[in-house]
Amino acid sequence: MEYNKILIIIRRSNGDVFLTIPLIEALKKRYSNAIIDILVNKNTTSIAKTLPFINTIHIFDYRWKKQGILSWIKNEFRLIRNIYKKYDLVINLTANDRNVLYAFLAGKESISAIESEFIKSWWKKNLVSYHYTIDNKKHMIYSILTPLNILGIKIKKIPYKPKVIYSFETIKNKFSLDNKYILFHPSAQFWFRTYPIELINSLLSLCKELNIQIVLSGGKDEINKKISKEIKNFPYVKNLISKTSIEELYALIKYSQVYIGMDTLTTHIAASFNKKLIAIYGPNSVIQWGPFNPELQYSPSFDTPPITRYGNFTIIQADMKCVPCNKNGCQGSGKSKCLYNIHPQTIFKEVKNG
Asked: Which of 51, 83, 109, 183 would suit a FRET pair with 242, their CA atoms being 20 to 30 Å apart?
């Protein structure tokens, strides 16, 4: 079966959108003449723009509802009109109700993730051509690649490295960087996955001993603004939080000596380059959300706090019985005590030994 127009629906976080790279590349290799489009949430558009072989980006925006019922209906209608029966194949990578409906409306054939519970998924099975359930005991990248199995497409390796358009000299000159530096991305999308600011400052203080420039990266959201404001002014720290584009961030990560980061997009980017990385994880399981090692073609099958090592990667978690809980903070508070229980000295030791 040949498909001339393919739509991928991935309305989740930046990291999930980024991890569609091997799926897109495998589809393009098999269906070389196909036009591939993608449907994402508004806040992941910048990542979607860097994906290979994508022709059109369709956007869903949660703010439509906040603008009133008429605005919501108008924008939903416009989105559906733009995708309605336009595609030979639609691949929906999440079990979200709206996404399943989009897949049904947009494609002559459709593949969709669905829930394992019958009460939630029975009607979805009747709408889509093929379906599968996400295995939470496997890395997310395997779930993203499951539609390839349905299509009979086999891949030997899972590469997901983004294209870097800037040279080291360009990045070095623009941001006044040293020849060698450590990149530290201290934030995540949510506070419950972000290392506490007072501990960030303690870690940066320890890094003086390394005699190497520390470069901080981050976005323009409220979490990053607060971190940037409360970071102490160390002479060996270059604060680039909110000062880079996503393409510049790709380059900063690629050219770094060591990467330090949270359970967030940039850790997956660093992993794609097979960088020496130290990842600080809070409540989430590394089984599903840990960085996938492209060299070893491996991700952990077990959570082994406090330290998990494989290849160039080190994951640090709190040695607590409740880790991982996969919850959005302790008792719904939005804050994770486990992150407060990761001592800066533990992280520093891993950075120093790297």
From this structure: 51
